[in-house]
Task: structure prediction
Amino acid sequence: MLALSTTQKSGLALLVLLIAYALCAPLLQAGDATTQNLSQILTSPNADYWLGTDHFGRNMWLRLAEAMQLSLMMAALCVMTSAIIGVTVGVLAATRAPWFDRVMDGIVTMILALPGLVLVLIFAAIVPGSFWVLYVAISLIQWIEYFRISRAITQRLTQSPAVQSSKLMGFGEWYIFRRHYFPAIMPQLFTIAAFGAANAILMMASLGFVYVGIQPPLAELGLMIVEHFPYYSDAPWLLAQPLAALALVVLACQLMGRGKAL
Amino acid sequence: MRQLLLKRLLQLIAVSWGVGTLTFILMRSLPGDMAYRIAASRYGMDAVDSRAADIVREELGLDQGALSAYWQWFTDLLSWNLGNSLVSGAPVSESLWHMLGHSLLLAGAGMAIALIIAIPLGLASAYWGGWLDRALLTASTVMRAVPVFVIGLLAVIVFALEWNLFPVAGFGTPAHLVLPALTLALSLAAMSNRVIHTEAKRVFGSSFYEFARMKGLSTWQAFKHHGIRNIAVPVVAFLGIQLITVVEGVVMIESLFSWPGIGHGLAHAIFARDIPLIQGAALMMGVMFVVLNTLVDIACHYLDPRGGRIA
Amino acid sequence: MSLIHIENLSVHAGSVELLAPISLTVQKGERLTILGQTGSGKSLLAQAIMGNLPASLRAEGDVRLFEQRVNAEERQAFWGKQISMLPQEPWNSLDPLMGAKQQLAQTYHLVAGEGAAQAQQSADYTLALQGLQESGHKRVDQLSGGMAQRVAIACAMAGGAPVLLADEPTKGLDVSRRDQVVEQLMTQSEQGALITITHDVAVARQIGGRMMVIKSGELLEEGNAEDILNAPQHAFTKALIDADPVNWADETRDTRYGEPLISVQDLSIGHGKQALTRHLNFTLHQGEVVGVVGDSGCGKSTLGDTLLGVHKALGGKIERHSNAPLHQWQKLYQDPTAAVSSAVSLRTLLNDMVSLHNIDRSRIAPLMQQLGLSDDLLNRNSEGVSGGELQRFCMLRALLLEPVLLFADEPTSRLDPITQREVSQLLVDVAKQNGCAVMLVSHDPAMIHKRCDRVISLSQ
Result:
């Protein structure tokens, strides 16, 4: 099916590792991510707190895991939603009546008129701090990429000998989708999904960073970076943690999406 | 080309409509008496009373049904009547022009530095390959995995806090521009040096480039007459795609460095729920985005006689 | 004076020898043709002589140009001025963003050292000489393949190089355009030397001079072109020559046809509003093999799509006399790899079709045997089999549907000459046995002449 390159495999391995951390970390240490302990603030990593504590004395091992869960969940939801919608609409636009294609093209042109981050920012302003509104806003932007690629590939294929041949042999549309369109879209889909996941995570962190995304006390990578920045000289490891986590998860996705070296 | 410009015009309309509608929803969904807050912003907290609020209510159609209020909102928008900031009370359109200047300065400086970094590195790594190529690939990959605000943060820590070379944030002197512009440039160059590399490699390895050498042109002549333009066409088209990175980078970098541009204004307005300013800033960003895209279209059209990019 | 003299030149990739040591000498006024199939290492020889092998490959041996011993780097100084090379595929060898005349004038200016105005004049003169004066402003995407190749030849010669290496100069060209290109090469080389690399026996015959036959990187025989072509010594050379359609055996065919199958009256075909061909009138009978010829762009493929009902006719009438269901009107494609999904194994594709139309499975094995397809071939996907095998698989699928009409759109043009001969023979034989009418499209009149009962000629 999909032959992964070494680069992609290392990305996948890294991602699996990060997912494992996000899911299993809470099982390994007792407590929760929001309990403050003001007598234990800014402690360095030690036997009790494997990654130390933050400026409220919260357990960073657990907080980081919670933030990762949130980021990964956002990425997974956005990728699935936008991939399903994008591919379906893309294939339909290429194979159905021309008016449908024109309408979809118009909608896409309209959405693309505004830079994605600005659109997400406005959505975030309407319902502040909502995970679900961010999810809708990010998916609203990301489905377009899937749509455009699926439509372009399908459009090219509808004219191809392979599809014409299948039609002449009497095969139906579902068969043609299964045997011709989808296998051609699939490898591209994988790349877009990987980069889309990275972008969704970055987008959410960016919003957290300018303080209009997920609201405290919830743990979110971007938000944590701003919160920890004032303590960078006292507790550099504290700032380093969300930075490293964010960079690693984005790197994992980007490596996975890279079929060949660019 | 005409069709492309028409498409861009459609986008301008879409931006105005989209931003207008979203901010309208935002206004209607806000808790509290909107009219009172707007009146306060216009006449000052002390001068405002329920009578002034009523006048605002009537003027903006806040007491009407949603539909006619929506209509009123648009007529204001189309006549460039963007209202006053709820926070400062200053007319939004005035502060927008001020912010636009700063944003364009930052974007321009960032893109210029990015090209100065990316073009030589991209071409050199394509021509020589080897360790230079691998080193650049690794550096670019790492750089792209790090969000732009993290690059900025690290730049602040290293250049401003540790070495005291440049101011942490703010504006006014050329020194203030260095870190924000450098941050933007690095994040742009991380991607574009690879695109230039790929395209240059494609051209250097192409049959027509080889033929140019075979028919007697020197390395430099072949590059000058057949290399530059053929590399430039896809690279400029890519610039169009990268514009989104520019605009998003500007938003984040301005917020980080308190650079008084539109992105900073937008983020602050959202945080302060300053609706007229949100609308104005988002509108300006959208317009700027469409205009820059149009410029790229025109550049592509000029460079590529085959019909330019299909956006 | 020997213009090129090479001794024991070989090409290696790592430790693998791609081209066995070869020696040759070309004197002034001489023509040398190197004949071999695709992938036989002939292009490597040209690159090794020029000194522009890819960095991953290594050449060994001695090269002397104009009686000077020169290494690969030193040879760059000869490019364009003493020795020039014409790469394969003309549409890739010209700058896609620059007009034809501009590229030619640039060569006169920068390589031959003419003044700017003089270079423009020279370019105009040369283009006029080639009958291309109207096309000087066109870019390569606006030129036909033949025109592009003639511009490329002019560019290659503009620097004044007496020696020209032409690598497959006629690949992908129609026969009429091929002859023009060969003629131009011959004229250009009268004062110097011409080395032509080709797989096309007809081109080798036209050029004449001396000839070398290469197979898998090894020299099989060399000598006078006429002698070799008339009396080949080596079995491979013989097979190559026999594979040229001109040399195919004439057969007596059964010319008793069945009932009329489909007829067209005053048919116009084309895309949108632009008609490619008008006023077509013919009737096709069951079991008849009809050739379709015409230059590229005259609507041969469109005719097929129109007859099969995939494409709308622009005007006229098509009448089907048979009420066979739609799936019995089939088509074979020029590029079988583009016509078969590579996502699943060939067996899956075959099973898909067998179950869709409830085909009797016992018919598969004999037909496969007849087509020379082995059963384990079906376990691979379309990328794992050769072009000839895949085209025969396409024939298998089409024939299992018991077609009444098979429109074969240049089904053998992407295959090497020997396979081309087999596949086209098989197609005609099997169709005849099954009472299926065949329309065989080709740009090669010789092949049509040998395979078809009659010919429909399309002209613009």
